[in-house]
Design goal:
The chain has 274 residues and is an alpha/beta fold. The chain has one domain: Rossmann fold (3-Layer(aba) Sandwich). The protein contains ten helices and twelve strands. Strands 1, 4, 5, 6, 7, 8, 9, 10, 11 and 12 form a ten-stranded mixed sheet that branches. A two-stranded antiparallel ribbon has the order 2-3. Strand 9 and strand 10 form a beta hairpin. It is globular, with a radius of gyration of 18 Å. The protein starts with 8 loop residues before the first helix and ends with a strand.
Amino acid sequence: MRFFQTGSLKAALKMLMPPILWQAAHRIRSRMARKSPPVFEGPFASWADAVSASNSEGWDSPSVLNKTLDAALKVRDGLAEFQQDSVVMTDIIYSPTILAFLCLILSRYDSVNVLDFGGQLGTNYFQNRRILRSLGSIPTIWNIVETEAFARLGKQHLQSDELRFFPSIREAPILNAVLFSGSLQYVSNPFEILEFIINAGATIIALDRVALHSDPDHTIFVQHAPGIYGASFAVWQFSRDALVGWFEGRGLRLVDQLVTPYGHVDNSGMIFVR
């Protein structure tokens, strides 16, 4: 299979996805845009300063873990269709970025073997499980790298032949296809992690729901999220041009930038290939 030799990912996705999915994404994006956006405090001079100004114990605090596990188990057991950041939803919200990412994998490889960094308890796997299973005999393995607490819960409640959890990127298999979905901006050392996976041979890197701005420099804020976790977190907002330049300096080009169907800030999807 060979996709995207010419044209854009958006055009290819519209051929692959039924119109109802694009219409649903537009409705969801419009509905969520009307909700109150999160509050960003800052910028801060350092990540440590932003952490000190936040009120959260971290993404693996008991409140976040419990809410996320409860939502993930509902999806696993068929009691809910989808969950994002512990919010249970009655309909699956497909990400154009992740769908494009899967198509690019299939254009190069004969299996879907993904490293999902910060994938919590399988949000992205369950989001796309129906599509993955419709591929028939094409093997699928979804590897999630998470904090030790999340990885432990994942192994205990959700791990299967297709879905696996690891507490460290150094313990996970480094694969050609790597996904960061709403996760890259919440780690203290995003460029060290990216450097590690690029040096290990990653050829397709997707950034879904990545926080971008048009300023020339990356900045650090505290994001207040009372409506989801009742907490606040340190967060990067990346300079779009500086981020693209960083990848280009390491031999990866931007294939396309897509709009995410959910989120409040200028969250975008970006896919880079070698």
